[in-house]
Amino acid sequence: MLGFVSFALGIAAFYQKDDKKLKLVMVVFNINHMVHFFLLGAVTAGFSALLSAFRTALSVKFQSRLLAYFFIGCNLAVGFYLADGWLDLLPIAGACIGTYALFCLEGIKLRLAFFVGALCWLSNNIVVGSIGGTLLEATLLSVNVVTMLRLHRQQQLATA
């Protein structure tokens, strides 16, 4: 059930053209994801989602490479400590990419990085058996492309 709530929250987040609105909805999305993964027994993914909630909340107010590197380091430390195998590192890779994106990128570049991170999370969700999460990431890949095209079109109209 929580996977389907994440599905709705994720679509709402990634459909946003405004970076701040995207980040605010993502905080709720990450908290829901955390609970979902812990209930599935996917501890590494759960802790990664918890860190993602904290980092996303901070990224609303701060753009900082230092904070990005701090959270990437936290993700790597937790991930390597909790991982039972290399597949457990998929959500860590996705979280690291997302962390860099949130603190260091904007607009289309932000969403392009999220696209790559979504590929990592899609793979993780397939492995842990999260049907809602798998549907979410597959959908988010499409929504991200649509939003990037909308932003590109908006930029073209602004310069025309």
TrEMBL record:
Residues that span the membrane, as ranges: 37-54, 66-83, 89-105, 112-136
Pfam families: Imp-YgjV
UniProt KW keywords: Membrane, Transmembrane, Transmembrane helix
Classification via InterPro entries: Uncharacterised_HI1736/YgjV, YgjV
Protein name: YgjV family protein
Organism lineage: Bacteria, Pseudomonadati, Pseudomonadota, Gammaproteobacteria, Vibrionales
